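Structure first, sequence second, as always.
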């Protein structure tokens, strides 16, 4: 499945109140040439319905879930929905799957054993009446065991809040074949104070979550780096801020480390669609 070297990751493409504006924005992003449009799981909801809205608005770009929780979306329903959308729109829907955290598993009545749970979920996708092809699903893997499983049973992995150094380690685990498509937060602003403030505003809740905190600690950050919304060192490592050329340098660093695709999340200052930021970033679409 083709997703190109760069894409756009956007909660606004699910959350924005006006579906007509979402349709128009997705069509414009498709014209920019982004390889994929990624929408996050956001705790559940009709993620395939939201994906279909983007598929309907576009003609070339892949639409990817980045990522849906295996605890909130039954495998049989996802396989059935994926097959329906594939028949309608071709091979343009990439299912990104995540194991979430212990609270999500407990809420669903399960036990948070990530490897076993994901293995079983992938089994169910394989055994569905119309299976989800291996190359049309990826896994949100942060640790080496999940990364290995992702490379063996899916097209690859879509890690969150990682640096190019993490990417180099993940590529060593994956080997040369599987896709490695990290999320990359970006702030199009060359002022350090404003850029870091905007980055913290979005990222601070994630940094407090146990599974992301553990991942960041494994990457070499300290507890102090994770306090008060994230240290400058942490923010600068996981957020690309500055002008478009500077952000392009971070994309190249990911690719040089072994990434095959980078999903850019433009953090804006408003609550609507970040159209201005997307238009500024358009030269990076390829």
């Amino acid at each position: 499945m083709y997703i190109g070297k760069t894409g756009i990751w956007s909660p606004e493409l699910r959350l924005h109140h006006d579906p007509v504006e979402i349709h128009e924005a997705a069509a414009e992003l498709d014209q920019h040439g982004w390889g994929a449009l990624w929408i996050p799981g956001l705790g559940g909801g009709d993620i395939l319905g939201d994906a279909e809205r983007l598929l309907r608005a576009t003609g070339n770009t892949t639409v990817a879930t980045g990522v849906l929780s295996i605890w909130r979306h039954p495998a049989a329903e996802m396989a059935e929905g994926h097959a329906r959308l594939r028949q309608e729109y071709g091979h343009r829907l990439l299912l990104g799957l995540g194991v979430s955290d212990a609270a999500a598993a407990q809420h669903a009545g399960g036990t948070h054993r990530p490897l076993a749970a994901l293995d079983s979920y992938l089994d169910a996708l394989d055994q569905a009446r119309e299976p989800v092809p291996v190359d049309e699903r990826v896994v949100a893997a942060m640790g080496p065991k999940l990364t290995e499983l992702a490379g063996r049973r899916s097209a690859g992995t879509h890690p969150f809040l990682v640096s190019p150094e993490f990417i180099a380690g993940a590529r060593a685990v994956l080997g040369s074949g599987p896709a490695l498509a990290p999320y990359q937060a970006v702030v199009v602003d060359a002022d350090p104070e404003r850029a870091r403030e905007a980055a913290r505003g979005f990222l601070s809740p994630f940094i407090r979550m146990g599974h992301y905190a553990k991942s960041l600690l494994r990457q070499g950050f300290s507890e102090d780096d994770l306090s008060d919304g994230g240290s400058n060192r942490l923010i600068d490592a996981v957020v690309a801020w500055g002008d478009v050329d500077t952000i392009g340098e971070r994309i190249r660093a990911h690719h040089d480390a072994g990434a095959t695709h980078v999903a850019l999340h433009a953090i804006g200052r408003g609550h609507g669609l970040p159209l201005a930021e997307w238009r500024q970033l358009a030269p990076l679409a390829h």
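Margin note: The mean pLDDT is 94.
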